[in-house]
Target: Periplasmic nitrate reductase, electron transfer subunit
Amino acid sequence: MRALRIAPIDSEGTVPEIYHQDEKRFSRSYRQQPPLIPHSIARYQIDLRTNQCLTCHDWTVAGERGAPTLSMTHYMDREGRQLDRVAGTRWFCNQCHVPQADAPELVENTFESTARN
Ligand code: HEC
Ligand code: HEC
Model:
């Protein structure tokens, strides 16, 4: 049996390495990829009523906030109509957009970017 505490009880355990989020713009790994988030999102709440991402990224404010504007696809409803407000299907941003850390993969995989083929 292997103990959870790998080091002996009378010695200092080793702390697992912490991988911090990369804060830079990322290239996409395939053309349709939702771009990775280049900044911290810890303080930006998203719930049924509030979406703090929109305070910088919505088309109405992005210019003055110096943030990239949401593309047209974020304002299109299921019937293909263009809306002035972000579509319900795009409300929960982190369903598609995620931060990134340069950490070893949790599950081995053979993914290769199509950008470099
Ligand atoms: C305080 C303003 C602000 C808020 C709030 C904000 N962002 Fe951003 N976001 C930016 C800016 C500025 C950039 C461009 C950063 C750069 O160029 O390095 C950016 C870049 C991005 C990008 C990268 C786009 C690309 O083409 O590479 C994504 C994705 C993104 N944000 C998603 C989000 C999400 C999701 C939230 C909410 C959880 C959010 N942002 C909240 C200001 C903000
Ligand atoms: C269903 C998945 C999905 C959701 C939800 C979603 N996005 Fe995106 N987003 C994408 C994809 C895919 C792209 C790249 C292709 C495109 O622009 O449509 C993108 C592009 C972007 C870009 C780059 C636009 C550009 O022209 O450079 C930003 C910024 C962004 N999204 C922010 C957000 C924010 C903020 C939210 C929440 C309000 C959000 N997205 C919700 C999938 C999504």
The radius of gyration is 20 Å. The pocket of heme C (ligand 1) is lined by residues 25, 35, 37-39, 41, 44, 52-53, 55-57, 65-68, 93-94, 97 (CB under 6 Å). The longest helix spans residues 54-57. The mean pLDDT is 92.
